[in-house]
Amino acid sequence: MVRIRLQDSKTAALFLCIFTAIPIVRLYGQDHPQVAPPSKSDTFSIADNGKKFRVQYREVAETNFQIAGVDLTAKEEVLDQAARILGKVETVATGDASTFLERACYRSTQENDNTRLIFVRGEVSPYFVLSSESSAWQWRTSCKRSSRISRSLTTTSGLHLGQTQEQLIAILGLPTMHSRNVHNGQDDMVYALETKKKMSSRELTPYLQDELKQYPNLNQKTWIENNGYYSLWVSIHAKFINDSLTNLKILWSETY
């Protein structure tokens, strides 16, 4: 399970890496912007490239992070899950340290079906890409054919290629950002989400023990009240062409 420090600026940079901050626009046939309204609980973060983006304080169901039997929230590394369930593949790795990313690609065995499912792990956050666009995988290593990958593939929550914007909103709620290119019929919907979660006793114990080594007289009750939480970061980018989902990227990260 991935653990990162909220204070690390690279957290925001990688959190932003699967989408670009985009302006609010209107949906097809709608009279008002279809984005989540500003809230007092919203926060703002700045990536290394200097771009500022809004973050909603809420969470979505864990079923949005489960696809083809692989679960981004599981303790087992995402590429290890994919290899066990979908078969071993030659992976592609780039960067190092905090910028390290390793990718594995799977695609449909069906003729005329361009569906690809890409899993990515790194030092910060795991994510997956479900896409019908050949440009989703730009590496020389070929994608492994799998009978479990097809146009009908869905997340456990019901997200799938070909669905409309309204169908996606019914599952995820209103997005944080939304842009539209009127020339090519492209819509981009972005969800930038964060919520604070209480640590379990098992998760909290190692941190508390470290503090007690340095401060034997520590007031444990007060320390737990102030530090017994972690942040859950979620980033979702959905791309639509003519109101049909063609590319979906979902990132999940625990920040301690």
Question: Which characteristics define this entry?
Answer:
alpha+beta; 12-stranded mixed sheet; two-stranded antiparallel sheet; 256 residues; disordered N terminus; globular; 14 strands
Describe what this molecule looks like in 3D.
Helix content is 18%, strand content 33%. It has 5 helices and 14 strands. The strands form 2 sheets. Strands 1, 2, 3, 6, 7, 8, 9, 10, 11, 12, 13 and 14 form a 12-stranded mixed sheet that branches. The protein has a two-stranded antiparallel sheet with strand order 4-5. The radius of gyration is 19 Å and the shape is globular. Mean pLDDT is 86; it is low at 1-14 and 18-33.
- Which geometry do the CA atoms define? globular
Number of strands: 14
Strand content: 25-35%
Helix-and-strand structural type: alpha+beta
What distance lies between the first and last C-alpha atoms, to the nearest angstrom?
A: 11 Å
Mean pLDDT: 86
Work out the helix count.
5
The arrangement of helices and strands along the chain is EHEEEEHEEEEEHEEHHEE
Supply Rg: 19 Å
* Portion in helices: 10-25%
- Contiguous low-pLDDT stretches (5 residues minimum) are 1-14, 18-33
The number of domains? 1
Largest sheet data = 12 strands, mixed
